[in-house]
Amino acid sequence: MRQNLLIKSICAVFCILLFFSCSNSQSLEAANLTEETLKNAAAQKDSELLWTRELESVRLTRDYSKNVAAAKNFMLSPGAISVANTNADSVYPCLPDFGSLDNSSLSTELTAFLESLCNEISLWNLNAVKMEQDSEFSLVLFKYDVEENWLSVYGKPFPVSKPAVAENSSEVPDGGSASEEKKRLFSDWLYGMPFFDGDSVLVPVRFTSSFGTLDVSVYVCTGSAFAVRQIEIQKMQ
Fold it and tell me: Which CA distances in Å does 223 have to 60, 87, 196, 201, 219?
């Protein structure tokens, strides 16, 4: 009887071990199945996504620690590189009531013509201003408007009663004499950004003096020879 009891006990223990073994095998198999399913689902989702390109991908592939304009053994900082960027566009000042002062598009020849023109106007020697044929009326109107509005705008009578340079005098050299400077109506001038249109160019010019400023638009013919096509007042203040 004791032997039978021992056999029954051994059988019971074997059944219990067999039950737990099968249960663990099924749980492990279910876990592996779930993991594979999630992995496949994640891979499928990833393949369906539309990714944007990398930000500054080209910049990340370049070596910015050196610059061709600097010595090879000189390591540049990011700040120094940004300042030394020779490919950047030039920056020009801008006057709020006048516009950009970028006159880099003016040729050397056109600049020389404008300098001569502005010098004659500043001396109020309008007889020496080279006008285009049949455009003299524009200069006459310009002269009349400046002289007539001078008192009301600047509060003083027009200071020039006759041409600053006599008709039989030679061309005025740069700088001029002391007596010439006393007769000078405007002390300085500057050019705004020009606008080109075919065979002509519009150049904004601001004349300055102790009285105030005079803004004019000068239309210059750039054909076979430079000549003023039109000159008109934009602002006196």
Answer: 51, 33, 12, 10, 12
CA gap 7, 36 in Å, rounded: 44
pLDDT digits (tens, 9 = 90+) for 151-168: 999 999 998 865 444 444
- This prediction has a pTM of 0.57
Q: What are phi and psi of 190, to 5 degrees?
A: -145, 155
Calpha distance 76→67 (Å, rounded) = 7
And the tokens for 125? 């020697």
pLDDT digits (tens, 9 = 90+) for 83-128: 565 566 677 788 888 888 888 889 999 999 999 999 999 999 999 9
The CA distance from 91 to 104, in Å, is: 11
Q: DSSP secondary-structure letter at 66?
A: -
Q: What's the residue count for the chain?
A: 237
